[in-house]
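Listing S7. Sequence submitted for prediction.
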Amino acid sequence: MERGQLIWITGFSGVGKTTIATALYGKLKKKAKNWVLIDGDCVRQICDHDLGYSPQERLQNAKRIANLCKMLTEQGINVIAATISMFSEIYEFNTQNIGNYKTVLITASLENIKKRDSKGLYQKERNDSKNIVGVNQQYDLPPVISLTIDNNEDGQIEQKADMILDLIKESENG
């Protein structure tokens, strides 16, 4: 059985990972039915919110997501995962265990992310929260980045999804 591929979309909370991943998923589902979208927040919800946001709990959630992606790709299912996944060991796990794996880093300035703040996360920063990645929790950049998308400007979501689509096409043709 042919293995599926994994498009691992990462970046800070509020940077636009899920928005771009959802647009990409819509485009890919029109072409092939064997695509699945996994969102880090949804995995938390499925697991009954049993984990908080400490570095240890974030690592455990990232491991869940990586293992789920491994299981699905082994069954020939293509996966888009939108997750902070801020740990080097997760990127290493994916590289070692998932053959067709691409990392997409979504970036924006912290100032722009705070302006958007769709989840109200950065308002909590004023309450001395110790659980904000990029503010008071370290974020390990992926060692190998297949594509970086600057999401400082609002909009252009379809074009940003197309950039990832081009990456997928390149890997299929390469």
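Caption to Listing S7: primary sequence and predicted structure tokens for the chain studied. Strands lie at 5-10, 35-39, 78-82, 100-107, 147-150. The domain at 5-173 is CATH 3.40.50.300 (Rossmann fold).
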